[in-house]
Amino acid sequence: MNFPCSQSGRRRLARRVAAFMCCAAVIGVSGTGRAYQQYGVSVGRTVVKLKWNHMPVQYYVRNAGTGTVSAAQFQAAIDAAFATWHNIETAAVSAQDGGFVNSLPGNDDGLSVLGFLSRADEPDVLGETNWLIDDVTGEIVESDILFNTSGIAWSVSAGGETGRFDLQSIATHEIGHLFGLGHSALGETTQVTGGRRVDAKGSVMFPIAFSSGNTIDRKLQPDDIAGISDLYPADGFRANTGSVSGTVTKNGQGVFGAHVVAFNPTSGALVGNFTQDASGTFTISGLAPGPVIVRVEPVDDADLDSFFSDTSRVDINFRVTYYAQFAIVPAGGDSGQIRIQVTSK
Fold first, then answer.
1. Structural domains in the chain plus CATH codes
2. Cα dist. 85→78, 92, 111, 181, 280 in Å?
3. Low-confidence residues of the chain, pLDDT below 50?
C-alpha cells in the first residue's frame, strides 16, 4: 500500500500520536517494512522505503515555550530524544541540532522544525509528524513535528509530573516517525469512555500514549531498535541478525492484517510485524539468532487506521494462534517459510 501520488513534485504527509484516552484518526499507510511497520512511497511504478538518504538529519527548534516548559527546556528534551535514537549501535542514524528558529512546524521552508503549536481542532492529539517527500526520489526532504498545547499540559521533569505529559517520551515517539518508522502493534489497552487506556506496551512506537506523568517511553524497546536498524542498518547488522518469515492462512486463504510477533525466550525481546498482502505473508527481521516463539493475533488493541490505509481488508475474526514449534533464526539468514493456520473466533 502506498501514499497517494501528487502532481506538485513534493508532497506533505502526516502521522500522529493520540492521548491515552483517544484514538485519533491517523493519515498514512501500513508499509513494506521487514522489522515492523515502515512506509512505502510510490515513485513512478516502483515503491521505495520512506527514509532520509543523507545523515545527519538537521533539525531546528522553535524558539517558544509554554506555561510549563521554557524554550531552553524544550530544546534540551528534544536533543535528548534524538540522542535516544542515534545512540543505537546497530542503526546508522544521526541528527544535529541547528539551533532556535522562529518558523512554525508545518511550513514548507526547507527546515525540519520541532515546536509547540496549538491545535484546538485536534485536542486529543499530543504530537504530529509531517514529512515533505520528493516525488522523484521518494526521499524525505523535510520533516516537522508539532506538540499540541491546546488543553494539554507538558512536563520535562525527570520523574514525570501528574497531570502533565512527558515531552521527551512523546518526542521520542514522534522522532521515530521523523526517521520513517510507522506504528507498532505491541501494546495492550482497555476500552474506556472516549477511547482506549494503555495498560502495557512493548514499543515506543505504539500509536497510543501512556497516561500523563509516565516517562517509560524515554527508553526504546527491542521492537523499536529492530525497526530503525532494519531501515538504517549499521555495518554488521544484517550479518549478525536474522529473520523469520512465513504465511498466515484461514480456511485455506491468506489473512491480511494479522499481527505476527516473534518472542525470544532467552532475552524476552518482542518484535512484531503484519501480514501485508492477500497471501498472508510476513517477515520479521532484526532478530537475534536462535529459537523464537511465533504468535499470531488480530489487531484489536488500537484503531485499525493507526496501521492500515484500507481497513476494510483487515481480518480480525480469528483466534490467537501459536506456531506449533520453535522457529529457528540463523545469523545472516531466514528461518524458511513457516505456515500458521488460524481459526475463526
1. 10-229 (3.40.390.10), 238-341 (2.60.40.1120)
2. 11, 10, 20, 12, 31
3. 1-9, 18-35
